[in-house]
Every structure is written in structure tokens, then in C-alpha cells.
Amino acid sequence: MPKLITQVGCPYCGSSCDDIEVLVSDDNKKILEVHNACIIGTNLFMHANDPTRPKLPRMRQADGSMKEITYP
User: Residue 18: which region, alpha, beta or left (left: phi > 0; alpha: psi -120 to 50)?
Assistant: First the structure.
């Protein structure tokens, strides 16, 4: 059963919204819904689920491409 987390603070602007509600999956690994946030705040929370987002630091190469930096 998904869990509703209340009184979440928004990481975006200086308005300090702290009444955001986030519905997360059973395993707490995916955000399903965001309530009481503006469109920018909602997009920030939902971006965590995007499979195409970078998960490792990247460095621009001389040819203009980006290479992920891996750590040992």
C-alpha cells in the first residue's frame, strides 16, 4: 500500500513551502503523486523517477561529448 508523507519541504525556491504531501510506493523508491506544490516543485519531485536523468557526475570531453565519471 502506498504511503503518504506529509509536511515535506520543497527544495526549489525561497518561499519555503512546507505543506507538500508526497505519495510514495510500497518500497519507498518511487514517487507516485505530489500534492500542494507548484508546477516547478512538482516537476522537481517527479524528476527523481526519470530513468534518463544522470545518476553519476559527467565531464565534458574535448570532442564535446559527455563521459560519466566512475569511481573505483
Answer: alpha
